[in-house]
Write a structure and sequence with these properties.
6 helices; 3 strands; 3-stranded antiparallel β-sheet; mainly alpha
Length: 198
């Protein structure tokens, strides 16, 4: 039936429909990130997860290029010597050391890995914003990349470690998303926080 004056249909009655309640944080099936605290100092904010992930991808590409060079060298040595397993173990160990040096150097000398530096992020001491010490950097690397390095060093269990590594990475992301300072499990273990300046 239409309105005789305007010719428009009459407004529909809403009936008994009600909007669903907003999701409750912490309830199963309703993943919510914790509210982010205000930055620790003027002009400094806690880094968001997306920017941190992009920085890790940049670092991953850099280390992947280094790894490809190591794999080519290892392949040549394996073909010429026939010592496949030993060479694989040695080059897995070399890759782990390269990764360790890459991150520890960045965190202690530049306050950031190269990927973080590119995105204006810094990894600093959570208590006072100081540059990380070498033992603190090694601890952070061990909790962040240690499980993946183990898979590179011991290729026999590499597939299992890769699967566990994916689950561990998801755990790190989850713990970071639930922290008001965006500190993942690895950050808490090392007493670090990732911040963005500007």
């Amino acid at each position: 039936m239409t309105d005789p004056v305007s010719g428009a249909p009459p407004p529909q009655s809403p009936g008994n429909w009600q909007a669903p309640p907003p999701p409750t944080p912490g309830m199963p099936g309703n993943f919510q990130q914790a509210q982010v605290d205000a930055g620790p100092a003027p002009g400094v904010s806690y880094a968001d997860l997306v920017t941190r992930i992009i920085a890790m991808i940049i670092d991953g590409v850099i280390l992947w290029v280094i790894n490809i060079v190591l794999l080519i060298v290892a392949g040549v040595i394996v073909v010429t010597t026939g010592m496949g397993l030993l060479i694989t173990l040695i080059f897995g160990l070399i890759w782990a050391v390269v990764s360790l040096v890459y991150y520890v150097y960045g965190w202690t000398k530049m306050r950031a890995s190269f990927g973080q530096k590119f995105l204006n992020l810094e990894t600093v001491n959570a208590a006072d914003g100081a540059t990380l010490t070498q033992p603190q950097s090694i601890r952070r690397w061990a909790f962040l990349w240690g499980p993946f390095a183990l898979g590179a060093i011991i290729p026999i269990v590499g597939a299992l470690v890769s699967l566990l590594g994916v689950l561990y990475a998801l755990y790190l992301l989850y713990t970071a998303s639930q922290s008001p300072k965006r500190q993942g499990f690895h950050d808490l273990q090392a007493g670090t926080v990732v911040v963005k300046r500007g």
